[in-house]
Amino acid sequence: MTRTESEETAVRRAVCPGSFDPITNGHLDIIARAAKLYDEVYVAVMINKSKQGLFAVEERIDLIRQVTGEYGNVRVESFHGLLVDFCKQRDIPAIVKGLRAVSDFDYELQMAQMNNGLSGVETLFVPTNPTYSFLSSSLVKEVAAWGGDVSHLVPPAVLSVLRERLPRP
Ligand code: PNS
User: Cytidyltransferase-like domain spans which residues (predicted)?
Assistant: First the structure.
């Protein structure tokens, strides 16, 4: 099957969705890899009103912009609603997600199948760098709250705001 001219020139877009409260090196690794594979990568900070975050959505966006600025093809936005609607409104056919371990798989598969059933959007799973296979924003916040060293787990910009927000015990 030959590709039409418009298919050949089409911008390839993907989205990396999440809560990013705050962004970690694990998230950043997945975003950086997606940015190599796609022309435009959206980072979607999905708003969940029932979940009180440590950082306000605008703060999360600001941090993500600071640490992804060097890639040049990454856009950061927040969204309140279904991820498939975010994708539809921006003509994004693919969701890129990191898989840390088998334990992530069950829920991620459910979401991928639901999203595909709702709108046809595809989900591509990227195996997390083993260095970050245990990493989550929640664990980073917990360790940092008790004065543990998380400097190797988050970008420097995130480390400094974490230190301000979570005074040492
Ligand atoms: O970083 P998280 O909290 O693990 O990310 C989960 C997230 C935000 C990607 C997921 O909850 C999501 O897509 N929420 C948006 C609402 C939605 O589309 N729900 C249906 C998922 S099938």
Answer: 15-142
The share of the chain scoring above pLDDT 90, in percent, equals 89
Ligand 1 atom nearest residue 137's Cα: 1
Site residues for ligand 1, CB cut-off 6 Å:
17-19, 46, 82-83, 111, 114-115
| Whole-structure pTM value | 0.95
Band of residue 150 on the pLDDT scale cut at 50, 70, 90: very high
Please state, in angstroms and rounded to a whole number, the distance separating the CA atoms of residues 2 and 41: 26
Structural domain range at position 26: 13-132
- Residue list, annotated binding site: 19-20, 27, 51, 83, 97-100, 108, 132-138
Judge contact between 42 and 14, C-beta under 8 A. Answer: yes
* Residue 154: inside a domain: no
pLDDT in tens, 46-85: 999 998 999 999 999 999 999 999 999 999 999 999 999 9
158 contact partners, CB below 8 Å, separation of at least 6: 22, 23, 24, 63, 67
CATH code (residue 79):
3.40.50.620
Number of domains in the chain: 1
**138 within some domain:** no
Residue 92 forms part of a structural domain = yes
